[in-house]
Design brief:
Distance between the termini: 58 Å
Strand order of the largest sheet: 3-2-1-4
Helix content: 25-40%
Order of helices and strands: HHHHEEEHE
Largest sheet: 4 strands, antiparallel
Length: 166
């Protein structure tokens, strides 16, 4: 109240988990922010702490990371691929940190969040992509024919699973 921060801004900060240092988890802070109403004379003497948030279950790690990406575009809690690494391991997807251990021209499966897509005019249709997994960066060259074949997916995907050669 002293800072005259709007209800909408408080809700956005709460959704982004900005009140952890005040001892409020994301859900409790959002509940409190959304419960703020206009100051009516009848309730002027009530303290903010008198409105308790319900006992909400804690968010799972995946829900926390998803909420972080939804509100801020990144997460300090975990990398999204670390949450599915066991599944990726079953598919023989190699983490970025282990790619240097493979032989030149070895077949490989990789997965990562798409950071950059570049299609320079001088590259004759070749697309350069940078992906990121929980262990590092992956640089990918996509030849023109392959790009044209998978363009719909590769152009807009937030994350990709790719099979190719080192």
């Amino acid at each position: 109240r002293r800072a005259h921060v709007s209800k909408a801004l408080l809700a956005r900060l709460a959704a982004a988990d900005a009140f952890g240092s005040l001892g409020l988890d994301r859900r409790t802070a959002l509940w409190k922010a959304l419960a703020i109403g206009e100051d009516l004379p009848l309730f002027a003497c009530l303290e903010d702490d008198e409105t308790e948030a319900p006992n909400l279950p804690p968010l799972s790690a995946g829900q926390q990371v998803s909420a972080d990406y939804h509100t801020t575009g990144f997460s300090l809690k975990a990398h999204p691929l670390s949450l599915i690494r066991a599944d990726l391991d079953q598919l023989n997807v190699v983490p970025a940190a282990k790619l240097t251990e493979l032989q030149d021209k070895a077949s490989v499966r990789i997965a990562g969040l798409v950071l950059v897509r570049q299609r320079p005019p001088t590259a004759n249709g070749t697309v350069f992509m940078s992906l990121e997994d929980e262990t590092g960066l992956l640089n990918v060259i996509v030849w023109r024919r392959t790009w044209e074949r998978f363009r719909k997916v590769a152009k807009d995907a937030v994350a990709l699973y790719i099979e190719g050669k080192i």
